[in-house]
Every structure is written in structure tokens, then in C-alpha cells.
Design a protein that fits this description.
Radius of gyration: 18 Å
Number of domains: 1
Protein name: Spore gernimation protein GerQ
Structural class: mainly alpha
Largest sheet: none
Keywords: Sporulation
Pfam family, one: Coat_F
Number of strands: 0
Strand content: under 5%
Subcellular location: Spore coat
Family: Belongs to the CotF family.
Helix content: over 70%
Shape: elongated
């Protein structure tokens, strides 16, 4: 995000953690949506095409999960650490929002 957009939105810089988290959430939503589409499709050809997309989306989700775990952004096996990371991210977001509001005043 460039400085102009940051100033206009009152948001700070996008970090790797923010982008990776957004991509992981989008991958999860994509998996759910494709699975729903498969269950509602009428032809075998459409189901097969959607199944390929679902398989690809599941692989991507796995890659994003591994990336986030490797970089310390995601701790699926350590709830206390995950809560600590989530609270730190929330505090950073609140701090950036407050800074943005102060800049606008």
C-alpha cells in the first residue's frame, strides 16, 4: 500500500502477516464455496471441473498454512501462542487506526 492510500484510509502499511492471513481466509472461503458449487452442480463435467478447482484450492490453503507457520504467524498446535499473536495483531491494528484518526484531525 503506498503512502497516499495509507493517508487516505488511515491504515498503516500492509505487512506480510496481514496479506498472508487475508489469503488464508480467502482460501478457506474458496474451499467452502467450491464444495457448495460441486454439491449443486447438475452435470458430471461441471463437477469434475469444480473438483479440480477444489483440489487446487486445498493445496494452496496448505501452502499458505505452512508459510504462516514457518514465519510464526500461525500456531495451530499452540493455542496460547496463537492468542498472543492474535492479540498483538489486534493491538497493532488499533494503534494504526488511532494514528490514522489523529492524522485526519
Amino acid at each position: 500500500m503506498n503512502q497516499f492510500v495509507q493517508n487516505m484510509t488511515g491504515m498503516g502499511p500492509m505487512t506480510d502477516q496481514v496479506v498472508a492471513t487475508d489469503m488464508l481466509i480467502a482460501a478457506k472461503a474458496g474451499i467452502k464455496n467450491i464444495a457448495t458449487a460441486i454439491s449443486e452442480s447438475a452435470t458430471p463435467e461441471v463437477r469434475a471441473a469444480l473438483q479440480q478447482q477444489l483440489d487446487q484450492q486445498i493445496r494452496f490453503h496448505g501452502q499458505m498454512t505452512e508459510y504462516m507457520m514457518k514465519n510464526g504467524y500461525y500456531h495451530p498446535y499452540n493455542m496460547e501462542e496463537q492468542v498472543r499473536v492474535d492479540l498483538a495483531a489486534a493491538n497493532t491494528a488499533l494503534s494504526q487506526a488511532n494514528q490514522g484518526q489523529q492524522m485526519q484531525q
